[in-house]
Structure formats: structure tokens, C-alpha cells
Amino acid sequence: MDFSKYKFNTSDGKQISITLEEEKIYILDFWYLECAPCIKEHEVIAEYIDTKKNKKIEVIGMSIDRSKSKWETYLKTHQYNWINYNQFGFDETLYKDLEIQLFPTYLVVNSKGNILHKSNRFKQALSFVEELI
User: Fold this and answer.
1) pLDDT tens per residue, the chain (133 residues)?
2) Is the previous residue joined to 37 through a cis bond, with omega within 30 degrees of 0?
């Protein structure tokens, strides 16, 4: 997957492209606010982030919400400080190109953009990564 062709909104109002760092494994969390299982999984992610010991694992939220203000408010209210992006307003969207239809979806991606694992539970994705590294 070539992430350089996509633009993302940040929670502080900027637009960026993602650069994957060598030596890291990424867990991409595709979600949206009206998805109750997505919101429940964020509690699990928050617990992991608070106790995270392995710096090689990076969690990135990929929201498909159409309201950037509701998305930003949600992240601030819950103090979810891991990296979160939103793609509303862009023609090319990662979740559509990946044909993601169920939420939440977690993709484990290496630094070259290769998809190594797909699941609908954060703990399953995390277990896969922990066995990998």
C-alpha cells in the first residue's frame, strides 16, 4: 500500500501524508463515531497505550467520520492521544481503496506498507504483532 498518495486530516486541523518509519509495525484502526464496537475498542486501545512498553508498535486511528468537529471533540473529550487521522473531504480514501466494509477493522502494516494481518478486534491485531516482533 502506497500511503504517500493519500492525504489525511489531523486532529489539530492540518492536512498531511503518512510516512511509515523503518523498524516500526503499525496497527491501523478504521472506525467511526456511530460504531458502538469501535468506541468500545477505543477503551482497550487506551489501556494499551497507557501501559505500552514496545516502541516499535504504533497505533494509528483512521476515522471515516464526516464531521471533523465531532471527531475532534470525541478525541479531546476522551483524551485519546494516540495518532488519529480523518479522511473526510478527500477524493482518494484509504478505507475505500482497501475495500473495508466492516468496522472496526484493524490492519497490521509494516514499514513498507505491506498488510500483514487483518482483524476486527484490537487485541487480535496486537497479539499478532507481539508474536511477530
Assistant:
1) 888 899 999 988 899 999 999 999 999 999 999 999 999 999 999 999 988 878 899 999 999 999 999 999 999 999 998 999 999 988 889 999 999 999 999 999 999 999 999 999 999 999 999 999 8
2) no
Q: Check if the beta carbon of residue 35 is closer than 8 Å to that of residue 65.
A: no
Q: Which amino acid is at 39?
A: I
* Rounded CA separation 61/107 (Å): 11
Q: Indicate the helix (H) or strand (E) that contains 42.
A: helix 36-51
Report the run of H or E that residue 40 belongs to, with start and end.
helix 36-51
- In contact, 62 and 29? CB cutoff 8 Å: yes
Angle, CA of 104, 99 and 123, to the nearest 5°: 30
pTM of the model: 0.95
Q: How many CB atoms lie within 10 A of CB 6?
A: 18
DSSP state of 4: G
